[in-house]
Prior knowledge:
By secondary structure, this protein is of the alpha/beta class. The protein folds into 2 domains: 4-57 and 322-429, Alpha-Beta Complex (Aspartate Aminotransferase, domain 1); 71-319, Type I PLP-dependent aspartate aminotransferase-like (Major domain) (Aspartate Aminotransferase, domain 2), CATH 3.40.640. Helix content is 38%, strand content 14%. The protein is built from 14 helices and 16 strands. The protein has helices spanning 4-16, 71-83, 92-104, 117-132, 158-161, 172-175, 186-194, 219-231, 282-285, 304-319, 323-344, 370-374, 378-390, 411-429; strands spanning 38-42, 45-48, 53-56, 110-114, 137-140, 178-181, 202-205, 208-209, 215-216, 235-239, 262-265, 276-280, 350-354, 357-361, 393-394, 403-404. A 7-stranded mixed sheet has the order 4-12-11-10-7-5-6, sandwiched between helices. Strands 1-2-3-15 form a 4-stranded mixed sheet. Strands 13-14-16 form a 3-stranded antiparallel sheet, with helices on one face. Strand 8 and strand 9 (215-216) form a beta hairpin. Helix 7 (186-194) packs parallel to helix 8, helix 11 (323-344) runs parallel beside helix 14 (411-429) and helix 13 crosses helix 14 (411-429). It is globular. Bound molecules: pyridoxal-5'-phosphate (PLP) and the ligand N[C@H](C=O)CCC(=O)O. The site of the ligand N[C@H](C=O)CCC(=O)O has 9 residues, from loops.
Amino acid sequence: MAYDKSIAAFEEAYKVIPGGVDSPVRAFSGVEGTPPFIERGEGAYLFDIDGNRYIDYVQSWGPLIFGHTDADIEASVIDSVKKGLSFGAPTTVETELAEEIVSMFDSIDKVRFVSSGTEAVMSAIRLARGATGRDNILKFTGCYHGHSDSLLVQAGSGLATFGTPSSPGVPADLTKHTLLATYNDIESVEKCFADSPEGIACVIIEPIAGNMGLVPADETFLQQLRALCDAHDTLLIFDEVMSGFRASLKGAQGITTVKPDMVTLGKVIGAGMPVGAFGARAEIMAQLSPEGPVYQAGTLSGNPVAMAAGLTSLRKLKANPAIYVELGNRAKKLVEGLKRAADSVNVPMVTDVRGSMFGFFFSDKPVRNFADVMENDQKLFAKFHKGMLDRGIYLACSSFETGFISTAITDEMIDETVKAAYETLKEIKA
Length: 430
Ligand SMILES: Cc1ncc(COP(=O)(O)O)c(C=O)c1O
Ligand SMILES: N[C@H](C=O)CCC(=O)O
């Protein structure tokens, strides 16, 4: 494949945009080669400016459950655009989308829309602190909750890719209130509670971690977490910015029996438009301005075009929940094929699937937390990524990210992907 135009575009971008990208993971720093600059998407495919076509397993990092240019979503966006892009005033489509979300999540009585996952989590944390009157929060190493100050501590995703899990520019005075525990290790959480006599406002977790690769939380661990939060009057927040409507129609909450106090949602509820949301029981949400004293706002919050896209996507999913069975089967078919390809050249690989989310690590032991993730062979991943890209397969460009299946991806495309994996691994091991 030729990447000449993308290489030139990256050089141009570099002159005016830091690192040439508007979000660090896009820079291909954890893998080989240059990021293809994308011209357009269609169904399961991405097309770059050199004219290369790829089967897209990134899906804009999750939101595109129906693939690119879905006709229904496109029509609702165009219809909405024709009425105006933004009003900074209430619209009925916000209420409609809120009603859909509330009807799907037992844990949510009320929801507020914002413009990104970062904003959703930042606002939820503020609300949790305001509602409990406590400063401390607890997060898990390797989980990523967006880039707000309190949460840029031992985080996954781009921070893990760049080997800087915490960021300069965040005052230590702020992060001293962020306690860290180990994913799937309840003793580490107990220790944080024991060491915090002043109390903890909230525990935030990706119930299906997707920002250190795909690492789901054990059911027992989540139950123990719930019990600890109850015992200490601490709010449990499920960050479902990635897993919401991806892992199942009810996100992780369709898989675990554990019910959080608060939920954050993001990109998936906007079907590719910039959006985020946070929700909780009515008495918690009543603390939020203008009902309550905890301030939170946004000029473009509840943007009508994003709401229209999200509403169409959610209604399509709700009308046909069997989609999740199909997506899950394809994801399983894919990782089983990848594993067979790895076995064929005696490369250890562990895989996992939750709904349409899939992950694989070049590792010979189960991966349950960030320390396990760090043991996977990242150099091999980098080579594998390049070989797959050259064969028209667009995988997430970091071993700390998750893959996604869309309804546009067919069994034949999975076969093509598995064939590419055999060829790539054979080439690497030759
Ligand atoms: C679980 C989780 N929380 C929060 C975020 C932040 O969302 P955004 O990138 O839209 O700010 C992300 C996505 O990156 C995410 O996966
Ligand atoms: N892991 C992130 C989202 O899920 C990757 C997207 C980004 O930060 O640009």
